[in-house]
Amino acid sequence: MAQLNTQLVHGDPSARTDATGAVNPPIYNSSTYSFTSVDAMPRWDYARSGNPTRDFLEAQIAQLEHGTRGFAFASGLAAIHAVLSIFKPGDRIVVGSNIYGGTYSLFNEHFQRWGLLSTPVDTQDGDALARAIHGDTRDVPSARAVYVETLTNPLLQVNDIAQIARIAHASGAIVIVDNTFVTPLLQQPLDLGADIVIHSATKYLAGHSDVIAGLAVVRDEDLAARVYYAQNRLGGVLPPAECDAVRRGIQTLALRLERQQENALAVARWLDANPYVRDVHYPGLHGEAVAGKGLRGSGGVLSFEVDPVLDPADILDNLHVFRLAVSLGAVESLAELPARMTHFELPREERLKVGITDGLVRLSIGIEDVRDLIDDLESAFGLAVHHAHTLSFALAGE
Ligand SMILES: *Cc1c(COP(=O)(O)O)cnc(C)c1O
């Protein structure tokens, strides 16, 4: 079988169905497919159930994640919705405590109403995880699944998928991993024991901030049948043109990620040496965080805490190369202030508990020249420091 970079460019050759010789698999713009006769069921009959453009992308992600079958959805959250729909009311899922906000609300609002129970746990703590899965024999049923993200958000702690899978499987629970932050290039969770992998393909896989998409890959045929049912019956499928946009994004994933990681490490080091920065959260900064946990790299997202003498908004508002925006994983660098831009609905105490301090900044590093990124940060910090001094002189003069 081809190596990873070749797979990124060419996908799975057996999923090619077009006979024209077109180098790119065509976008099949058809909602329905004709039968040759009443009883001759065609391979494709109706595009929600499947179509060649989507099949190509689904085969590609299944190949990259070393799974049995892949599924493409209209968004990352549609993928998560479909995967969680394979469970039934009364089932319980243990959920990592620092997960994507939309997923958190899907568990705690939508699925709670639906009767799916969830228990948050610090997945860095193996004993706590084992206890949470086990439940208690009287009231709390043993968990059916563990749901985690490869890197916690926004503190970027590394979850040890192999260890989590060992603990979960010992109690008969399956493991679902949201691999969005690292992609199959840095880790293939199914190889480490996970059962289902999910991506917001909106981020690194598509990679250009121009498409919303989700993917799921399963380990075995039984899970494939259940996820396929949810995909086809809930119907949150990815349209052919978007399938093609994700396919094209995946072709350059390795090149982009390599540059993003190089740039992220340089930015993390620059921040680490900055006297106005307290903690820098980037797994690769001190090397040891990724080693031994199955990761081949640290990705392109990092976060850091600004010294409370500065207003972090003074830094973010003065960035010009970094765009002030949520989301991550694209060619352009983005900056955001979680406490005021994405997590302001959480009560402050709740935010602080999950590590989202008032001065925590998250950066998604792109593929620009790293000198421009660092210059941009340097001048923004300079203006913020100047502003803080002006303020303290004004206060002293009062
Ligand atoms: C963005 C994101 C999602 C949600 O994906 P959408 O494509 O926005 O629906 C889920 N998980 C993680 C880790 C994400 O970053």
UniProtKB/TrEMBL annotation:
Region (Disordered): 1-23
GO molecular function: cysteine-S-conjugate beta-lyase activity; pyridoxal phosphate binding; transferase activity
Modified-residue entries (N6-(pyridoxal phosphate)lysine), positions: K203
The enzyme's E.C. designation: 4.4.1.13
One cellular-component annotation, GO: cytoplasm
Cofactor(s) for this UniProt protein: pyridoxal 5'-phosphate
SUPFAM superfamilies assigned to the protein according to its UniProt record, in alphabetical order: PLP-dependent transferases
GO annotation terms (biological process): methionine biosynthetic process; transsulfuration
Keyword tags: Amino-acid biosynthesis, Lyase, Methionine biosynthesis, Pyridoxal phosphate, Transferase
Similarity field: Belongs to the trans-sulfuration enzymes family.
Full protein name: cysteine-S-conjugate beta-lyase
UniProt organism field: Bifidobacterium cuniculi
